[in-house]
From TrEMBL:
The lineage of its organism: Eukaryota, Metazoa, Chordata, Craniata, Vertebrata. One of its GO terms (molecular function) is kinetochore binding. It comes from Macaca mulatta (Rhesus macaque). PANTHER family: BICD FAMILY-LIKE CARGO ADAPTER, PROTEIN SPINDLY. One of its GO terms (biological process) is protein localization to kinetochore. This is Protein Spindly.
Length: 555
């Protein structure tokens, strides 16, 4: 029994110890949880303290702001009252000024209306004047058109007559060309006949034949040059007449162009008249609008003023709107005044431009008339030059000629052969380029070429040694054969001066120089021909021995 009790007690003790351990564990857990809760509580308290402090600060600042705003509202209300009083005073002053300015503007508008009426009357008068001018211009246009028609008929008649004259001249020129061709054919036949008559083969190999050939060639060339000179002279006269006719036609065309410019000026004046009519209509519309505005203003003045018992706020806004409206009206009036000033300036400038255009047209007309008169005077001057001035002469070339001196007393044909062979072997012959210098008168540029100084070329005297058996006295009596080149030296310095200054010297001086030079050339040529005919031929002695150098070329 006692053991059972002890066992029970031991069991109870064990249970009590287990419970005590569990209680200790739970106590520890509770202490820990309590500590955590205490920490959380402290944190919450701290947060609450910070929140309360911040809220108190915000509350204090808001209170200060409310106090400041209340004070500002009080000051602003005081300022608004002062501004209202000032605005009322200013409004009263503005009303007085508006009434005064309105009266002034009404007076100005009345004066403007009167001025516009005066301008309208002036515009009507100017319109009447322009209409009268237009009628006058129409009459002038009809007269000018009639004159133009008459001028065109005259021009057509003159052109038809000129065409007939040109056709007649053309037929004459064709007939002259045919006659010239026939004349040239006959001249060629004559030259051929002369050449056959002067053929050196038929006469023997002599220097006479060569000289005769060259003379015939020079004559043919001279004849061809004369023919060309005559044709060029006729062509020059025809070209001058044609130029004269063209100048007259240009003068008539300039007159026709002047009438055309008058028609353009009339069209421009009509366009300007239409523009002025449109401006007059616009001004009449503005006058009507101003009269309507004046009537409305008078009706507004007759109406009773607005009730003074309205609220102050409504009056304040209405006053503001009225002020803005007045400012806008002032700006509109100022812009209208500037616009009217600009319009007046534009009208003045247009009037000035019109005057300048009239002056310009008058000057252009005078210029065209002066040009046409100038053309006519030039045509008359050319006619007088053709009529009174001498014709231009062309320089005739002065040729160097070779003169041959041969013996006369030679009888036998063998002696002539010997003489020819001796001359051919011993005479110093010049090349053809140095023997003669020719100038072609076909072109006018030959007058500008400078002539070099002609140097007389003396050929050496040709002599054949006589036979040893002949006596000395006979040798002295006999003369030797010689061939000389006789040139006609011209005044080179005068020719070079003339050729260098032909473009700058006057026409009459050049023509007189040319005439004198041609006369001198003709005189010298005639003298030379006479001298060649009159001079006797010296005798040439040849040795009797037949050498290869002295044999006749024909053998």
């Amino acid at each position: 029994m006692e053991t059972d009790i002890v066992i029970n007690l031991r069991c109870k003790l064990k249970e009590a110890e287990e419970e005590r351990l569990k209680a200790a564990q739970y106590g520890l857990q509770l202490v820990e949880s309590q500590n955590e809760l205490q920490n959380q509580l402290d944190k919450c308290r701290n947060e609450m303290m910070t929140m309360t402090e911040s809220y108190e600060q915000e509350k204090y600042t808001l209170q200060r702001e409310v106090e400041l705003k209340s004070r500002m509202l009080e000051s602003l209300s005081c300022e608004c009252e002062a501004i209202k009083q000032q605005q009322k005073m200013h409004l009263e002053k503005l009303e007085e000024q508006l009434s005064r300015s309105h009266g002034q503007e009404v007076n100005e508008l009345k004066s403007k209306i009167e001025k516009l009426k005066v301008e309208l009357d002036e515009a009507r008068l100017s319109e009447k004047q322009l209409k009268h001018q237009v009628d006058h211009q129409k009459e002038l246009l009809s007269c000018k058109s009639e004159e133009l028609r008459v001028m065109s008929e005259r021009v057509q008649e003159s052109m038809s007559s000129e065409m007939l004259a040109l056709q007649i001249e053309l037929t004459e020129m064709e007939s002259m060309k045919k006659a010239r061709v026939a004349n040239q054919d006959l001249q060629v036949q004559l030259d051929q006949a002369l050449q056959q008559a002067l053929d050196p083969n038929s006469k023997g190999n002599s220097l006479f034949a060569e000289v005769e050939d060259r003379r015939a060639a020079m004559e043919r060339q001279l004849i061809s040059m004369k023919v060309k000179y005559q044709s060029l002279k006729k062509q020059n006269v025809f070209n001058r007449e044609q130029m004269q006719r063209m100048k007259l036609q240009i003068a008539t065309l300039l007159q026709m162009k002047g009438s055309q410019t008058e028609f353009e000026q009339q069209e421009r004046l009509l366009a300007m008249l239409e523009q002025k009519n449109g401006e007059i209509k616009h001004l009449l519309g503005e006058i009507r609008n101003l009269e309507k505005f004046k009537n409305l203003y008078e009706s507004m003045e007759s109406k009773p003023s607005v009730d003074s018992g309205a609220l102050e706020d409504n009056t304040y806004y209405t006053d503001l709107l009225q002020m803005k409206l007045d400012n806008l009206n002032k700006e509109i009036e100022s812009t209208k005044g500037e616009l009217s000033i600009q319009r007046m300036k534009a009208l003045f400038e247009s009037q000035r431009a019109l005057d300048i255009e009239r002056k310009l047209f008058a000057n252009e007309r005078c210029l065209q008339l002066s040009e046409s008169e100038n053309m006519k005077l030039r045509a008359k001057l050319d006619e007088l030059k053709l009529k009174y001035e001498p014709e231009e002469t062309v320089e005739v070339p002065v040729l160097k000629k070779r003169r041959e001196v041969l013996p006369v007393d030679i009888t036998t044909s063998k002696d002539t052969c010997v003489n020819n062979s001796a001359v051919g072997g011993g005479v110093y012959r010049l090349p053809p380029q140095k023997e003669e210098t020719q100038s072609c008168p076909n072109s006018l540029e030959d007058n500008n070429l400078q002539l070099e100084k002609s140097v007389s070329i003396h050929t050496p005297i040709v002599s054949l040694s006589p036979h040893k058996n002949l006596p000395v006295d006979m040798q002295l009596k006999k003369e030797k054969k010689c061939v000389k080149l006789v040139g006609v030296p011209a005044d080179a310095e005068a020719l070079s001066e003339r050729s260098g200054n032909t473009l700058n010297s006057p026409r009459l001086a050049a023509e007189s120089k040319l005439q004198t030079e041609v006369k001198e050339g003709k005189e010298t040529a005639s003298k030379l021909e006479k001298e060649t005919c009159k001079k006797s031929h010296p005798i040439l002695y040849v040795s009797s021995k037949s050498t290869p150098e002295t044999q006749c070329p024909q053998q």
